[in-house]
Amino acid sequence: MYNMILQNYERQILKSLELVNTLDQISSVTNLNRDKITRALYWLAENNLIEIKEESTIEIKLTEEAENYLKNGFPELNVIQKAINKKRMDELTNEEKRIGLAWGIKNNWIIIKDGVITPTSEGLEALNKKSIVKTCEYILENKKLDEFSKNHLLKRNLIIEKTNKEISAILTEKGKKAIKELPKEQEEIKNLTQQNILSGEWKKKYILPYDVTIDS
Fold first, then answer.
1. Please, are residues 42 and 60 in contact by the beta-carbon 8 Å criterion?
2. In this model, does residue 76 exceed pLDDT 80?
3. CB half-sphere exposure, 141, CA atoms < 13 A
4. Do 16 and 30 contact (CB within 8 A), yes or no?
């Protein structure tokens, strides 16, 4: 006979595992928040009612700076485009001077003479390929990046990496048996009042346990 005391939300979570197993799925079925579900899952696991599986995935997102460049153009590509039109350095924006010129010179995409910017063949090819634009678009499409591209974008602060921890759970044999033997759900009482006692109402309800530990 099953004799472990479970609160109503813990029963909900345990029963939901007959149908689903991920944190988001459990939340959708039970309408409980993720934090409450997570705490309950670890408690259920401690009592051998479920087994928990943890998986970590790395999510790559564009920074606000990268999103702005996708919308308004990357400084280095803008500089090459202006170089085609024989623009002078004093006609560049501050961002183009600060970032675009640096990358243009480093990659031999432009030549500057007497303040006039001229594109090289490599620069024209870079403008045509727009590799950095395509790489950022890959991220928006959730495509996998090669290590070189990822490291390049990280150094330029164009992407951020976020580690996501996903929790899933499955019922153990003990958990499956517990579900079959669970008593009928009762209304819960958090604080026992004089009215509860005098009316005998407490006999029909589940009294939530008190935390009697004392901090030292």
1. no
2. yes
3. 9
4. yes
Within a 10 A sphere around the Cβ of 207, how many other Cβ atoms? 15
Per DSSP bridges, beta strands 206-207 and 188-189 are: parallel
The answer, yes or no, to whether residue 106 has pLDDT greater than 70, is: yes
Tokens 């924006």 belong to residue? 93
* AA identity, residue 117: I
With residue 188 as reference, give the H or E element that holds it. Answer: strand 188-189
Average pLDDT rounded to a whole number, residues 116-129: 95
Reported as half-sphere exposure (CB side, CA atoms, 13 A), residue 164 has a value of 8
**Cα(124)–Cα(136) distance, integer angstroms:** 20
DSSP string, 133-147: HHHHHHHHTTPPPPH
User: Would you state the structure tokens that stand for residue 114, as one six-digit string?
Assistant: 């007497």
> What CA–CA distance (Å, rounded) separates 167 from 52?
7
- pLDDT(66) > 50: yes
Contact 154, 61 (CB under 8 A): no
Distances (CA, A) of 151 to 61, 154, 157, 162: 13, 5, 10, 15
